[in-house]
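[Automated response] Your request has been received and processed.

Submitted sequence:
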Amino acid sequence: MRKYRTTIIAVVLLVVVIAAFVIVLNVKDKGGDGNEPGTATTAPSSDRKSVALFDFKETDVIGFSSFFNENYEVSILKEADEENDATWKCDSHSDLVVENDSVNAIVNSVSKLKGIAIENVEDTTEYGFWENKSKVYFTTELKDGKTETMYIGDIDAATGNYYFVMVEGKPDTVYKVYKSYAADFMIEKGDLINLKIFSFTTDDTRKEFLVYKENELAFEAESSEVDEQGGAVWKVTEPAVRDGLNSDLNARIDAMRNITLDGLSEEKCEDLSKYGLHKPLIEYRLTVLKDGQRVTHRIAIGDKTADGSCYYCIIDDTGDVYTVSTSSIYRDFNPMAFMDTYIFMENTDEVKELNLTIGDKSYELRFEYDKKIVVDEATGEEKEELLIERFFNGKNAIDDDTYSIVTSDSSFRVPGPDEDLDFGVTSSNPRDCFQHVFLSLYAITYAKFDFDEPAEKGEVIMTAEYLMTDGSVNKIEYAKRDSTTAYVYINGEYADGYCETTSIYGNDYAMADVTASIKALETVMKIVP
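Generated structure:
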């Protein structure tokens, strides 16, 4: 069985277990030798019928206990029963918080459990019993003070599909119960925990998300508000103070909420180094606001299991070591994928002038703004419209579709008289090429945040100076770090990181490379009168 643990631990048999119980109540026999357990509504598959093991109702049950071996017991008791909506508690483990729906499903199943009866058995030791008992048994307590106990013996070697089961008080009868159904009553602590790693709900407000790599903080984000859809709005504070990419980060957290654990390896482990958990490769912590209280969920990931199918992990601060499938957990976390990494991003309508220098070449892109009042044809209302004129190196970059096309192979030329202007067009006029230069600059992002300022600034390979309509100036400089990256400086100050230079030197217009974009604008402007 799978074994799980979270801050709030609940009695949950696996989904497949519960589904199996439901199948017992609703479907016909399942293969094997054709004599599997049936239900009250299922016709027998042969002359040997499936019969009920017990004669009590679900509402008669006030508790149950599972004895899986000589030293282990799990005991569940009913605390209240209001209109058949039972409330349960774990009497044997005070740290376990019971999930009522799951316990109700177990009680419903045991009250309707059926098996194939083998009657007039003279020697029950052949089936794994001694004096009609075994070390594995399940006891149900009833409200009339009686108890019903079933003992689980050997697996039926002939088919491998059944466990042999005996019921106390019926000393000469052995039942064949489908293997998975009987095994599900062998309950251990690891089977009584919540399925989810992060057991928060959509009603819990997300407040903080932290990621540690080898005990070092790698990512920190905080949320103090939600968007119109109720999703958390994040502000990243580590590795740099930036806006979070809300949808991506919320999606990652949601995905982790749906991850289930695989098993329980060791309770109250005192030597976490055995599992690589003394210095976890990665650790996630999520803090939510639940009923006005801050609750933190935690999972730390260590080494792989011997067969390589799972990682060892710790949930919260219990000290218990679990396993989680390698195909389920995120062992890698790239902070850059969940935060705004744009170096400079401003509305072009607020830029008055851009002075761009690449190597030894300089370019001036300038805006002139005006406004006029127009009438909305649909509503008849007057509205203000912004008029923009664009100039490249002092020449008006007019808005006219007849000057050039940019073909699918990123070449730039004047179209011939017989050419279809719409064929392969990426950009159809000087204005579009003009705007593409801004797009290429805005597309440059941090490759990594590095707070150690270089000893020397180094060669500046590109400068983009923005003069804003409010009179402010933003000067972005890219200083060579190595052959593929450049440190970023904003208004003369080191900007805590570096970018890749591939998009600066690249010749792919469609990918918004800077040199390709400026080449397109130059080519178009040569034919503008």
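Summary generated for your ticket: The radius of gyration is 35 Å. The first strand starts at residue 50 and ends at 52.
If you did not submit this request, please reply to this message.
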